[in-house]
Specification:
Helix content is 67%, strand content 0%. The chain has 15 helices and no strands. The chain is globular, with a radius of gyration of 19 Å.
Length: 234
């Protein structure tokens, strides 16, 4: 099954009403972060089933699909690459990582980042130099900054917190709401494993953190402590 066959299959499942909803949800209007993105109305559960249906497709075909203007085609491509990365040997993993980075301009909405960056970028850098993440964290590109932050989820799950905290500090005064949410989310995930490390960071920075970032970070705190953070009285 080639790329054209995959595209035909996706279009056979398209849902115009759902596409309209998704285009609003992912902010595709003028001046918004997803401006110009095109949806055909397929959710993640459907796409995950299609990954299994297309398991014989090659990595090359997945990367061709990633270049599509259709959001769901790019997302399907990334889910296929996540599967291929997990199943690959070291050489295959290295090639997928390198081509992911080379095609990063197509990973241009938050779901595309969130469903792929931890499992490809984060997974690949577990035992390697992570300087690329710091380049991305300082980038003017919103999606590179989110990739930098979300990639650290893999490290957090191995009780490796340093890069999460360092990148969070770099992004502390970021202007974009999607970065506020990403940083707060990763701090919350870190806190599930080490509340002490999370609070050390928060006590240093919570007074200057964007409100959304702080709310995400302290979501699972006891109510009394949450109120102290929100009131600035910790």
């Amino acid at each position: 099954m080639g790329v054209d066959d995959i595209r035909k299959r996706l279009r056979s499942l398209a849902d115009k009403d759902k596409a309209t909803i998704l285009q609003g949800f992912f902010k595709t209007g003028p001046g918004h972060y997803g401006e110009g993105d095109i949806f055909i109305g397929l959710g993640v559960p459907v796409l995950r089933k299609l990954v299994k249906e297309f398991e014989s497709a090659s990595v090359y075909e997945a990367f061709e699909l990633l270049k599509s203007s259709i959001h769901e085609e790019r997302l399907l491509a990334l889910l296929m690459l996540v599967r291929s990365y997990a199943a690959g040997d070291d050489a295959a993993k290295g090639k997928i990582f390198e081509r992911y980075i080379a095609n990063i301009r197509f990973i241009n909405n938050w779901d595309l980042v969130d469903l792929s960056a931890p499992k490809i970028v984060g997974a690949h850098l577990v035992d390697k130099n992570r300087k690329q993440l710091y380049v991305y964290a300082r980038s003017g590109d919103l999606w590179k900054r989110r990739i930098a932050m979300l990639s650290t989820l893999t490290f957090i799950r191995q009780n490796d917190f340093n890069d999460t905290l360092r990148i969070s500090k770099i992004l502390l005064k970021d202007k974009h709401d999607l970065i506020h949410k990403a940083v707060g989310w990763m701090l919350r995930e870190l806190g599930k494993r080490s509340r002490n490390r999370e609070e050390q960071f928060l006590k240093q920075h919570y007074r200057v953190m964007p409100r959304t970032m702080l709310r995400y970070a302290i979501e699972h705190f006891p109510e009394a402590k949450r109120k102290k953070y929100l009131k600035g009285t910790m």
